[in-house]
Amino acid sequence: MRERLLQYLSCPACAGAITLASAKREGEEIIEGELSCTSCARSWPIARGVPRFASIEEVEGDKAATAAGFGWQWTHFTQTDAKYEEQFLGWIAPVAPEFFQGKVVLEGGCGKGRHTQLAAQWGARDVIGIDLSAAVETAFGATRHLTNAHIVQADIYNLPFRRTFDYAFSVGVLHHLPDPRSGFISLASRVKPGGHLSAWVYGAENNEWITRWVDPLRNRLTSRMNPRVLLQLSKIPAAIVFLATKLVYGPLNASASGARLARHLFYNDYLKAIAGFGWREQHTIVFDHLVAPTAFYIPREDFTGWWREASEVDISWHNRNSWRGFGRMR
Ligand SMILES: [Zn+2]
To answer: Which of 167, 190, 215, 257 is 20 to 30 A from 198 via CA?
Structure first.
């Protein structure tokens, strides 16, 4: 961590100020050290460059299992795909890269840090990515060259920050929490009045086939498997998706006459959207759906209800299988 992160921190237990009690540095970067609260005397370690406000050992049940599953995945899959930028902008639309200029930004659930990295490159004054899992190790490595990017290991329900952010976003994370709405409310509570928030979640609508056929398999079998075994097994469904997108959905949607036909195909909007991805990325997506112990598919009505604290909100349907919201907070 860099010392400038301190201005945004506050004690997750008592909201007191946080100071640096000890530090071992490598240039600007504090690699090992300790943070402590000036009011309640709680303290937290900084290890391998990352402040640790939560460790998986302290987190209960499914939340820890979700973090562990994704953490393993994100230290294993380290590919970067040129499509990430486009995909990220799809999830946070109508937000464009210019929006990040000069803003203080929080990402709720940063995984291996690819969005934190983009936000920093797009000119955020500072961007902080939090994650509960061991993926913070990868995220720190991916962002340490960016002076305005910061990675913190923390629980989204218990954020160690002041209400200081101009913009917060969370993509693909809230639906994996035991209580997605509480995670959203917690994130929103750190956005300054008049600041903005984006969230993207799996939708219930159009995903009935997943809740009906994939979910029971995920709950009873795949989320309990050794991730290394699941990684190999998931190549079978991934190969089916890969062949379908490369041989059918991609080519058909490339022409106007084909697209008219493709409209009638199963899950066309989404499969068209991922048709440009390579094998590893598509395999990651399939693995993702099988590894998580918790996954909620959220109806529009419920998602809309989350935004009561917003003065304006724009909710839209993404790839006809998920909801994205962008709101201005009161
Ligand atoms: Zn405190």
So the answer is: 215
The pLDDT-based confidence of 76 (bands split at 50, 70, 90) is low
Question: Do residues 73 and 284 touch, judged by C-beta distance below 8 A?
Answer: yes
Ligand 1 center–CA 43 separation, angstroms: 8
CA of 12 to the centre of ligand 1 (A): 7
**Residue range 294-319, pLDDT digits in tens:** 889 999 999 999 999 899 999 999 98
Q: Residue 235, Cβ neighbours under 10 Å: how many? A: 15
Ligand 1 centre and the CA of 9: distance in Å? 11
What is the CA(283)–ligand 1 centre distance, in A?
43
Distance CA 189, CA 147 (A): 26
> From ligand 1's centre to the CA of 52, what distance in Å?
15
**Do residues 129 and 108 touch, judged by C-beta distance below 8 A?**
no
Mapping DSSP to helix (H, G, I), strand (E, B) and coil, where does residue 205 land?
Answer: coil
